[in-house]
């Protein structure tokens, strides 16, 4: 197992390189340049500088490939560069915001699974019953409605009717858990609801497939009760494909966090990313995307390892 | 240069309903040099190893010795049965003969032509003569094709029939296998396992082959249907003078349809003899165990037989035992058996055995 | 003494696309204590269904036990509550299935799977149950049982998997063991090993065995009593000698003559039964299911269902023409 993990971590490097190249290139291809922005802003603040000066100062007059390498090597030293607009290193900016995003993603994941897995198992156990149909219909509705629309409703109507709004200032979980959760609960729930639709159906389908297997019949023939069969036989076997789905949903969750962060004023990476894009703050954008990529790769690694933990037949190479 | 063989011509059992068409078919089969008329297939030291690879770069780390030095020959119009359990390599032998694999070593002579020396064009011609029918009647027929298309697929590729002849061919083939001519426009899913197997046989016969490899063709069928298909195959052999290799795991069935039987274990032939001698005088301990393991459907007879039970499991074909392949499970095995591989020898009357313990095979003298 | 198991007029039907399939059509038979009963049939005979019905393992949908009684030690299993039947499964009646590779839970160790019935039915603690599981593996001749019990099914060969299943089914010393085609998926020599083991085990603990198979040889070797099924009904029943050496039903005769005999010369030709095994949905309840393929069939066979009648003590046959088969019967070797 150790060998496998090491091998996978080493494989991260070439993947990272490719991701970085793509990010770097794309940023440079967007119309509008950071330099112009800077010149304009400084001009507004009363400082007249020339574009060439700015470029020289920022090291952007060097060839693109050179700039890329400087940046890339810097990553391994822990130096993601400095923001072009704030006087802060990218790493510390991201570090600040990362916590919030991670918290949102983790809470969403927990809520999604807490809702979808038991309900999915239940629907499979009571296939074609009225509750099965009802739950499935609701899940289709959830899949169809865009999360930002529901979020808008959730923000507007409670404010209108009960003068209620979730807290708008961020408090770290470690400082004040209750206040923190008050802020995060609604957005996480919304994120969870949008994922649940899809995941519940997957859990149900996979569990139904599992229940058709021969070993379920053997379990019945041993006199094992339904509860234990669902848990030790159906659940554990059905989880293998479900974990894949969960792992696959994470990139979507991270990306989707942008919208929710924006709407609920959560100071996360998503918000960070949007602002920096507007400003063409290259280093920050690159840093954010890179972090996203690393998170996705790490999650994939965890999912792959968990296969082995769940299914003893899996041979990790 | 082949020696002149005394010609004791093989009797062709022609039934009372010989049709002109059948006669013509026999005439149309590949001409055979007169001297070696009898021997249609000779397999010499055939080896088929499949590489086991590991890692990103697919390095070969080991080989699955599916077929490990197998030799036999078959006379025209006869059936060689190959019987064995999982890992014996029996299906692989069949696949090698119809050239589904590139063999690792050894030679296969069909009508005295070395198959490995044939060019692509000649090989193509040969494919018409050597056909294969396999086990799963549900997987081997394309569900989207009609029966007619299935039967005609080969002839169309090899261009053996044209236009109007197609219909006639399909009709003849269906009749030959005992199916109604009207079935030609239906699809496989409308038929039962036994009927699909008949369709597979009809497909195999459409190219007028001289040689058919039957790979576990009755294993997936009910008992009464097995009897039908076996009877059909034997009848076709009589009528059309076709040579078979019949591969199976049920000794009773294999023995019934075959003139000679080869017993395979872990890639090698343990014993090869006529089907009568196999039951009357089995020499190899593995053959004896197989026979004992095959219960006879008669309580009085069966309960009076000796029970031979093998200990242990079949070793892996990646790592066969050093000496005799069977030594890990054989109750007669001794030091020599563990160290030295026995030779495959004729102990009299065309009865071949690979075993140190059989009198006449031990080169070092008696025991 | 009353019988261990009495199946009376069992009716198990399946419903598929509006068609009714009578997999078990008014089935009756008995199993005595310690007896080995073999049920022979081809596909579509309903043999598996008859066994699954005993433990009420018929999946609904599409199947349903419509009627009849299954008396086990005097109690009707069909009338028990869910909890009560669970108490019988795995403890008083055990079952083993055809494909051991798929019948075992791939994510649980073998030891854990064998332990389950011991914990549930005998209230053993985990440690005792594990020790008992290892001991059971030893009894079925699995080498290194302590190590093997910690392994998973995919690490066992086919024969070992089946033996593990036998250990599992016998763990609580059941009175009755049902084996549904236990060796069909195994190699011939492995089959012999497993069957010998099964036979030895049940003789040791005086467990009755119902073995369901299409392999006539196995039946000839091990059975005390044989039932031949066709189209959801028992068409002939008796001792192995009755069935193999003195069969009355045309189907039984056909079946026996269709099996190639290793011990006879090849001139003993294979006899074939024309036609195909029946399509369950198309069998009419008012005729003999075999009539379409029967060479002895008369008009009565198409219009009336033949009842199971005793021809000689212990030997039953359901056929109007059973006396006509005499000549063929006597020609049997």
Describe the structure.
The complex is a heterotrimer of chains A (317), B (367) and C (333). With 317 residues, chain A is an all-alpha fold. Chain A has 12 helices and no strands. Chain A has 2 domains: 32-79, no CATH class; 92-310, MetI-like (MetI-like fold). Chain A has helices at residues 2-29, 34-44, 51-58, 64-76, 90-125, 130-144, 147-162, 177-211, 214-221, 226-264, 269-279, 282-310. By secondary structure, chain B is an alpha/beta fold. Chain B has a single domain, classed as Rossmann fold. In chain B, the strands form 2 sheets. Chain B has an 8-stranded mixed β-sheet with strand order 6-7-8-3-9-10-12-11, sandwiched between helices. In chain B, strands 2-1-4-5 form a 4-stranded antiparallel β-sheet. Chain C is an alpha/beta fold and 333 residues long. Helices cover 34% and strands 23% of the residues of chain C. Chain C has an 8-stranded mixed β-sheet with strand order 6-7-8-3-9-10-12-11, with helices on both faces. A 4-stranded antiparallel β-sheet of chain C has the order 2-1-4-5. The two termini of chain C are 37 Å apart. The mean pLDDT of chain C is 89. Chains in contact: A-C, B-C.
Which features does this protein show?
heterotrimer, B: 367 residues, alpha/beta, Rossmann fold, 4-stranded antiparallel β-sheet, C: 333 residues, 13 helices, 12 strands, 34% helix, 23% strand, globular
What ranges of chain B have pLDDT less than 50 throughout 5 or more consecutive residues?
Answer: 1-19, 362-367
How would you write the strand order of the largest sheet of chain C? Answer: 6-7-8-3-9-10-12-11
Largest interface, counted with CB-CB under 8 A? B-C, 44 and 44 residues
Report the strand count of chain C. 12
Task: Estimate what percentage of residues of chain B fall within beta strands.
Answer: 15-25%
- Indicate the proportion of strand residues of chain C: 15-25%
Write down the CATH topology of chain B.
Rossmann fold
Principal-axes shape call of chain C: globular
State the name of the first-level CATH class of chain B.
Alpha Beta
**How large, in whole angstroms, is the Cα Rg of chain C?**
21 Å
Give the biggest sheet of chain B. 8 strands, mixed
Low-confidence stretches of chain C: none
Domains of chain C (count): 2
Please report the number of helical segments of chain B.
Answer: 12
